[in-house]
Amino acid sequence: MTTVLFAVPGLWADYQAELPKALAEAGVAAEVVTEAAPETVDYIVYAPSSPLQDFSPYTRAKAVLSLWAGVERIVGNASLTRPLCRMVDPGLTEGMVEWVVGHTLRHHLGMDRHTVNPGHAWDPTCPPLARERPVTVLGMGALGSACAEALRALNFPVTGWSRTAKPGCLHGEDGLRKALAGAEIVVTLLPKTPETENLLNAERLALMPKGAVILNPGRGALIDDDALLAALDAGHIGHATLDVFRVEPLPPDHPYWTHPRVTVTPHIAADTRASSAARVIAENIRRGEAGEPFLHLVDRARGY
Ligand code: NDP
Ligand code: OXD
C-alpha cells in the first residue's frame, strides 16, 4: 500500500474526499494520511503553507507534489533531494484565463470611465477593437499560453515571450525589447527565478509605449516596484493591475494601495481546484508507482 502524506493541514478539508477518490480512479492502492512516520511515506503533497520544511527524514519518498504552480519557495530547499513536481491544473488555468481576460477587457474597453463617473460626463468615445490593441504575454508556459490563446480568440494581436525559442514566440533580450515596445497591455506570467527577478526594471518599462498597462498575476518580484511607481507617477505606465507582491499580504502602508493608477487584487488570480488537482496528483502517483516519468517535473537548476 502506497502512503501519501497530505502535508497541507489548511487544505485537508478540500482534499480529504477528492484525493482518495482520484487515486482509486487512477487504480492506485494508496492510503492518504495527514501524519505518518517519515520513513513510511512514499509521496508528499505540499504547498508553501505546509509546516514541513525538513525533507531529510523522508528517506522513502519518491516525489514531492506541489499544489502550487510557482515553486520558488521550495525549489531551493537543500533538504529536498527527491523529484519535485509543480501543479498544472486545468481548474487553475481556467481561473487564470478568466482573470487575465477580464482585466485585459477592463483596460481595453476603458470600463473605469463609466463605472466611476461622478460628474455624469457624456463621453461618446468608442474604444478601439481588440484587433487594434496589441498584447504581450511574458511567459508562455501552461498559464501564459492558455491566456494568449484566449486573448487571440477575442482578436487581440498577442506576442508571446519565453526563455527558449518556440514557434510564434519571441525569446532573448532582443525579443523582450520587441515584445515590450509593441505592447499596449503586458501580462507577466513568469516564474520567480534569479533570472526573472526585477525583469521589468526602469529601462524595460521605458520601452513600453506611453499609457501602456501592466497586468501581473505572475510574481511580485518580477517588477522593480520603485521603477514601476516612478513610471506610473510620470504617466508613462497608464495602469498596473497587480495580483502578487514581494510581501503578501501587501502591507497596509504600501503605496500600491492608494496609487490612483494601481489596482490591487489579493493573490486571487487563480487557485488550484481540489477536484481537478487531485486527479493531477493521482496521475503522478500512478506514474511513480508504474516507473513512468513524472509530469510537471521542476528543473531544480533552472528554478521552475
Ligand atoms: P510554466 O513553468 O508552465 O511557464 C513558465 C514560462 O516562463 C515558460 O514559458 C518559460 O519559458 C518562461 N520563463 C521562465 N524563465 C524565463 C526567463 N528567464 N526568460 C523568459 N521566459 C522565462 O509556469 P506556469 O505558466 O504554470 O506559471 C507561471 C507562474 O504563474 C508561476 O510560476 C507562478 O509564479 C504564477 N502563478 C500565479 C498564480 C496567481 O494566482 N497569481 C497562480 C498560479 C501561478 P520556457 O517555455 O522557454 O521554459
Ligand atoms: C501558485 C499560486 O503558484 O497560487 O499556484 O500563486
Write the layout of secondary structure elements.
Blueprint: E1 2-6, H1 12-15, H2 18-25, E2 30-33, E3 43-46, E4 63-66, E5 84-85, H3 90-109, H4 112-115, E6 135-138, H5 142-153, E7 158-162, E8 169-171, H6 172-181, E9 185-188, H7 202-207, E10 212-216, H8 225-233, E11 237-242, H9 255-258, E12 262-264, H10 274-290
Parallel strand pairs: 1-2, 1-3, 3-4, 4-5, 6-7, 6-9, 7-8, 9-10, 10-11, 11-12
Describe this structure in words.
This protein has helices at 12-15, 18-25, 90-109, 112-115, 142-153, 172-181, 202-207, 225-233, 255-258, 274-290, and strands spanning 2-6, 30-33, 43-46, 63-66, 84-85, 135-138, 158-162, 169-171, 185-188, 212-216, 237-242, 262-264. The chain has 304 residues and is an alpha/beta fold. It folds into 2 domains: 2-89 and 272-290, NAD(P)-binding Rossmann-like Domain (Rossmann fold, 3-Layer(aba) Sandwich), CATH 3.40.50; 91-264, NAD(P)-binding Rossmann-like Domain (Rossmann fold). The strands form 2 sheets. It has a 7-stranded parallel β-sheet with strand order 8-7-6-9-10-11-12, sandwiched between helices. Strands 2-1-3-4-5 form a 5-stranded parallel β-sheet, covered by helices on one side. Helix 2 crosses helix 10 and helix 3 packs across helix 5.
